[in-house]
Design goal:
With 124 residues, this protein is mainly alpha-helical. 76% of the residues lie in helices and 0% in strands. The protein has 6 helices and no strands. α3 packs antiparallel against α4 and α4 runs antiparallel to α5 (73-80). It is flat.
Length: 124
């Protein structure tokens, strides 16, 4: 079962190692940390293959698997189906991180607005 989990979340090995060492659950990496790992994996594939396009095309299945642990996974998979360069993967990563930051800010703003509606005397 760990092998299947590692296909989508290779950082699981580090989490297991930390758990056995400290008996404490370790949080999953942040979205930026996940993307750094994905980009590093793509760079290593390009170096190993010696040519960018076939390397990134061969990474499509891996990229699809990684997307399951990220926000907006369906759109990521649609984008990954057509990716063929490292620059395209980087652009997808930047867009995904930016969109997530925007969603988080909107959520915080909506939460604050709902609090103001519920507790108008507190938030004057």
């Amino acid at each position: 079962m760990i092998g299947r989990a590692a296909m989508r979340a290779p950082w699981i090995f580090n989490q297991i190692k930390e758990y056995f060492a400290s008996r404490q659950m370790v949080d999953a990496p942040s979205l930026s940390e996940k993307w750094n790992l994905v980009l590093r994996h793509c760079q290593l594939a390009v170096r190993e293959w010696g040519a960018e396009e076939p390397a990134i095309r061969s990474m499509r299945a891996r990229l699809m698997a990684y997307s399951w642990t990220m926000p907006n996974a369906k759109r990521l998979r649609q984008n990954f189906a057509h990716v063929s360069t490292l620059a395209e993967v980087k652009a997808i990563a930047e867009e995904n991180i930016l969109n997530q930051e925007i969603r988080v800010r909107r959520r915080k703003k909506l939460k604050m607005l709902s609090l103001r509606c519920c507790f108008p005397n507190v938030f004057r």
